[in-house]
Model the fold of this input.
Amino acid sequence: MKVNQAEFVISAVGPSQYPGGALPEIALAGRSNVGKSSLINRLINRRNLARTSSKPGKTQQLNYYRINQDLYFVDLPGYGYAKVSKTERAKWGKFIEQYLLKREFLRLVLHVIDLRHPPSKDDIAMHEWLMYHKVPVCLVLTKADKVPRGKWAKHTKIIKEELQADPAVPVILFSSETGHGKDELWSVIERYAGLAAAADGGQKEAADASGSAAAGDTGEETAADDGGADAPADRHHAANRAPGGARGASAGTEETASADGRAPQQS
Done:
C-alpha cells in the first residue's frame, strides 16, 4: 500500500473521544516496549509520527493515526509493565476489553510479539483472550533483524507452539529496522480492512468500462459484472469472513481462555 498521507488524530481516553465516521480500525496490541510505535512508523515510511520511548508503559491512551483517509491504526496501551499500579492496570484493562469487544469498526488486531524470545505469560494470555472472543488477529513477530535468518523458523515455531496458535491466523516476521515483512503485512491489513476488495472492484469497473467502450466501437454489447467490493458499511461483516473468525460470538459453550475471562492488564 502506498501511503500518501498519515496523521495523528487523537489520544482517546474513552469511547466519547473515538473518531467519528466509518473507517476501518487496525489495532496494535503487545507488551510495553515491544516496538509497536516503530512498526507503525515503518509501515507509513515516517520516522516520528508514532513517538517511540525508552520508558515502558508510556502509552496510556488509545492513539489514533489516520492513514490515507482509508483506515486508522490504533495503538493500544502496552501490557506487562510491573511499575504501573494494580488499580491502574485494572482500569485500563477494562477500557481495552470494551474497545476490543464493542468497537464496531475494529477489523483486525496486530498482536506484536518479540521474535527473539518465547512469548511471555501476558502474551499468551492476550492471544488466548483474543481467540476466545473470536477477535480477528494477525501475529506480527517483530525485531526479526535481531535474530539470525537461519533461526527464524525455529523461533517462529516456538512462539506458535507456546501460543497454540490456530493455523488460520496470519503470521508475519517483521523488522522496523530493515522493513522486512512490510509488504506482506500491508497485504493482510488491506484484506481485513476491505481495501484489497475495493481496489479489485475498482480495477474490474475500469476493465468493464474499457470493454464496453470497445464493444461500442464494434457494435457489440458487453455484459457487466455486478460483483465487486463490499460497501463501507459492510466492511465489518467482510472482516468477519476473513481468516481468524467472526468477532463477538457467544462464549457460553467454550472454555475460558483465562481464569477470569479478562485480557491481560494494560500498563
User: Anything to note?
Assistant: The chain is about 35% helix and 15% strand. Residues 212-260 have pLDDT under 50 and may be disordered. The beta strands are 6-12, 25-30, 62-67, 71-75, 106-114, 137-142, 171-173. Helices lie at 36-44, 86-102, 121-132, 152-163, 182-193, 195-218, 235-241.
